Structures are given as structure tokens and as C-alpha cells.
Amino acid sequence: MPQQTAGTPTYQQKTTSRRPAGTLYRGREGMWSWVLHRITGVAIFFFLLVHILDTALVRVSPEAYNAVIGQYQTPIMGLGETALVAAIVFHAFNGLRIILIDFWNAKYQKVMFYVVIGLWVVTMLAFVPRHLTNVFNH
Amino acid sequence: MSTTIEAPRSPYARAPRKRGVNWEKWGWIYMRVSGVVLVVLIFGHLFVNLWLGEGVSALNFAFVAGKLTNPFWMVWDVLMLWLALIHGGNGMRTLVNDYATQPLTRGILKWAIFASVAVLIILGTLVVFTFDPCPAGAPADLLPSFCSAL
């Protein structure tokens, strides 16, 4: 977009991409929860496509399915599953936060973001040590 | 080229729609309703497959065969399949609407999203309802234990 140069200074000139004005949203909890919701959503969607295809191998043969699920049991994929569960748990709790903002009260959105982070930490503490034990002890 | 920027908070110039189904509204409602159900379905799926027992290292054909011959897990998995793919496809559609500016790009991307969602829903549903836990000629040690009773 060309810069506006003519005329008296307006707020459009003072407000640049480097220096936003008139917003409390940008760069705060609301923006980061939105960014994370989109990134985790895309990641989960592409995993879902792959996961349905690999599960469909049960219809091909037991050997084909076991060969692919064996890949899910390797250390590298075990770390990938940790990242996947981290993304799912954030997306799930933040999705519930969005519903509460829509149907309950938007003024608690900020505190609810920190509740989401807290619940995410608790859930990951319950999952990650146990999962990594299963991955690296077999 | 000069660009005119409307004053903030000026009302829509577009006339309000009068007839027809408001699909965007139903999509908005669908994301919230399916989201709540998916939290239960996917947390349950992860709990049973990754947390109970030996987790991911216990997964194999016999494990899946045990689940996909149980009507409870068949309904669970098919519900998860449909709800999650439509939820994810609609979410991807939102991103395309936000970030793809060329009409052709938007058209191609939305068509690709729709096609992959439709194909995988059909494939997944067929797999669940035509599944054979004891395929003929397969080695017995790869099959669930109930196959030897047949």
C-alpha cells in the first residue's frame, strides 16, 4: 500500500505497524491466545489427515498397520506426540475459554488465559513423564 | 493511487440479508458445540490410547481390533472422525478467508479442504464399519486373542 503523504497528519500516519495506537488488544494475552489457537489448530488438522490414513491401514493388513504404528513408537515420534498433545490440550482449554468469553463474560478473558496456561501445565505434568517413560523404556 | 479509509465504526454499507439460511452463524455455533464434544472425545481417546497401560508402546493391530469390534468405541471413533474433520475443515476455511486474497487461490484452497475432509470422512467411516478383526491368512500372533476361538 502506498504511504499517504499529502494533507495534515492524521492518526493513520502516526499509527504504523511498528507503533500501534488505539488498541489494548495487540501484543497482549488476547492476541497471543488467538495466535496460538490458530497455529495449534492448523498443526492438529494436518496430523488428523495423516492419522486417519495410518489408522485406515487396519483395513489393509495387520502387518501394514503394525509397521506404521511401530514408527509412532520411536523416540523421535514420541517427542512429536508430546508436542501434538501439548497443542491439543492448549487448543481444547483455550477453545473452552473462547466459549466462556462468548456466552459468559468477556471481561474475564485475561484471567481465563492464565487459567488455560495453568490447566495446560497440570495436564502436561500428568502426561509427559508417563508418555516419555513408555517411549524410552521400550 | 489514493486510498480512502472510512471512519472507524462506520456502519456496514451492505444491505442486511433478508432470506436464506445464515450458514456463517451455523458454522460459528457448530465450532462451539462440536468443540465441547471433541474435548471429551479426544481427551478420552488420548487417555485410553496413550496414558492407560503402556501407552503408545502397547498399540498394535490387536489393540485396535479389540476397540473396533466394540460398538461403544465404534460410535466413539466415528463421532470423533466426523466432528473433528468438519471442525478442522471449517477452521482451515476461516484461515483461507483471512489470509488468501486472490479469488482463485481461495477457491483452490477451499476446494482442497473440502475434498480432503470429504474423502477422509468416507474412508474412515468405511474402515470402522467394514473392519475385519480376524483377516484370513494373517499370522495368529498379530491378531486379537478372540480370533483363535473362531
From TrEMBL, chain A:
The record's annotation in Gene3D superfamilies points to: Fumarate reductase/succinate dehydrogenase, transmembrane subunit
Q: Which UniProt keywords apply?
A: Heme, Iron, Membrane, Metal-binding, Transmembrane, Transmembrane helix
Per the annotation, which location comes first and is thus the protein's main one? membrane
Single GO BP term: tricarboxylic acid cycle
The record's Pfam families line, in alphabetical order, gives: Sdh_cyt
**Where does this one sit in the cell?**
Membrane
**Cofactor(s) the protein requires to work:** heme
Q: Which organism is it from?
A: Cryobacterium tagatosivorans
NCBIfam families with a match to the protein in the record: succ_dehyd_cytB (TIGR02970)
Write the protein's name: Succinate dehydrogenase, cytochrome b556 subunit
| Annotated SUPFAM superfamilies | Fumarate reductase respiratory complex transmembrane subunits
Tell me which InterPro entries the record gives.
Answer: SdhC_prok (IPR039023), SQR/QFR_C/D (IPR034804), Succ_DH_cytb556 (IPR014314), SuccDH_FuR_B_TM-su (IPR000701)
| Molecular function in Gene Ontology | electron transfer activity; metal ion binding
The major lineage groups are: Bacteria, Bacillati, Actinomycetota, Actinomycetes, Micrococcales
- Record field: transmembrane: 35-53, 111-128
Family that this chain belongs to: Belongs to the cytochrome b560 family.
Any one of the GO CC terms: membrane
UniProtKB/TrEMBL annotation, chain B:
Q: Which organism is it from?
A: Cryobacterium tagatosivorans
- Could you tell me what this protein is called? Succinate dehydrogenase
Domain of life of the organism in this record?
Bacteria
Membrane-crossing segments per the record: 29-52, 72-90, 111-131
Main subcellular location: membrane
Entry keyword Iron: yes
* Compartment(s) where it occurs, according to its Swiss-Prot or TrEMBL record: Membrane
Query: Could you tell me which InterPro entries the record lists for this protein?
Result: SQR/QFR_C/D (IPR034804), SuccDH_FuR_B_TM-su (IPR000701)
Q: Name one GO molecular function term.
A: metal ion binding
Alphabetically list the UniProt keywords. Answer: Heme, Iron, Membrane, Metal-binding, Transmembrane, Transmembrane helix
Cellular component GO terms, alphabetical = membrane
Tell me the classification of the organism that encodes this protein. Answer: Bacteria, Bacillati, Actinomycetota, Actinomycetes, Micrococcales
Please give the Gene3D superfamilies that the UniProt record associates with this protein. Fumarate reductase/succinate dehydrogenase, transmembrane subunit (1.20.1300.10)
